[in-house]
Amino acid sequence: MKFILATFQGLISQSAWAGCVDFTRSFSGELSPPVFRICYDGVCDITTQEYVCSNVSSYQDGYAIGWTRDCQILSETETQCQINWQGRPINSAKHDRLTFEEISND
């Protein structure tokens, strides 16, 4: 009985934590990293996503060329993000100059 209760509690507590995918680990070809076009002031780079984590109130993602985002979901239409380029924060006034677009990795 204790084992069943401990297992059930473990499952409940895990549901509150973020689900993450680390694309840098080898999945034997089962999971390819998504390919993104990231543009800043019209200058674009094509890169792969290294990781993504999310739950009901936030998400975080990182890209091979050095971009990372850490976002809080405030409502259905509003988020508040900290965006970094190679570990350096980008001023939030410049966030509208950035686009992250997933593209086909064919």
What does this structure look like?
Helix content is 13%, strand content 47%. With 106 residues, it is mainly β. The longest helix has 14 residues, at 2-15. It is globular. The protein starts with a helix and ends with a strand.
Defining traits:
single chain; 106 residues; mainly beta; eight-stranded antiparallel β-sheet; 1 helix; 13% helix; disordered N terminus
Radius of gyration: 17 Å
User: Beta-sheet strand percentage?
Assistant: over 45%
Number of strands: 8
How would you characterize the largest beta sheet?
Answer: 8 strands, antiparallel
What is the residue-averaged pLDDT?
A: 83
Distance between the termini: 50 Å
Q: Which regions are unreliable across 5 or more consecutive residues at pLDDT < 50?
A: 1-16
User: What is the molecular shape?
Assistant: globular
Counted by DSSP, the helix tally is: 1
Helix-strand sequence? HEEEEEEEE
Give the class from helix and strand content and strand pairing: mainly beta
DSSP helix fraction:
10-25%
Summarize the entry for a quick read.
The chain has one helix spanning 2-15; strands at residues 19-22, 35-40, 43-54, 58-63, 67-73, 79-85, 88-89, 98-103. The protein is mainly beta.
Topology:
Elements: H1 2-15, E1 19-22, E2 35-40, E3 43-54, E4 58-63, E5 67-73, E6 79-85, E7 88-89, E8 98-103
Antiparallel strand pairs: 1-3, 2-3, 2-8, 3-4, 4-5, 5-6, 6-7
